[in-house]
Amino acid sequence: MKLFYYLIFLIGCFGFSQVEKYKIIDLDINNQYPHFGLMYAANNKIIFTSYLLTKKGKIKKISGNPVLTIFQGELSESGQVINTKPITIDIKYGISHITSATISSDSKQLYLTTNYNDKDMPKGNFKDTNFHIKVGEFDEVLGWTNFKVLSFCKPKFSYGHPCLSQDGRTLYFVANIRGGKETTKGGSDIFKVDILENNKYTEPKNLGSKVNSYSREMFPFVSADNTLYFASNRPNGYGGFDYL
Questions:
Q1: Whole-prediction pTM value?
Q2: By percentage, how much of the chain surpasses pLDDT 90?
Q3: Which of 103, 113, 230 is nearest to 166 (CA)?
Q4: CATH number 3.40.1350 given to 2-243
């Protein structure tokens, strides 16, 4: 987890300090635990990843491992993130470790990164440490439910950090897909798929050498003006994962 603190420190010191129109402030939600994977949601809301805590303020663990989950908060007029709380996920889907997520603009679908569990474990040999992307629907009573693994996710590869375009028609993510024209250049590249009707998707397309490098690209984000931002540990950065 030291990597996340180091990353935030570097962004604050080097990434924005040279641009006068930006002012960096320490948000009140920050504490000794990591906060990462921020995504803007509809109606002035923010989601991010952090540890799930017990009622006593201790990190909740399953089988000795800390539980990461998605929190949701609201943006105040001063830019603070307030009223934060974990999102509600239907317990029957057994999703206990989430590393990043994005919510559709109509707030009806949640895409998240997680591991396989007993309910969706693929057959045959595969790397159980691989991540994949699931999509779920919102229910007023159950919370986020009806999760399904995205059809293009293959168990032998790892997929993560989903991000929706502003119009909701394109899903960006990182992966380590190998082989063919769309093979990954480095440890992980940024890919995209078009979202079709009836929860169908096109085949993943690598964004190419203008975006991806022989290092690792992570955490894509598409702004309102359709600009793609992402982190990378490619050479000539200030260190760790810089944002580009």
A1: 0.84
A2: 53
A3: 103
A4: no
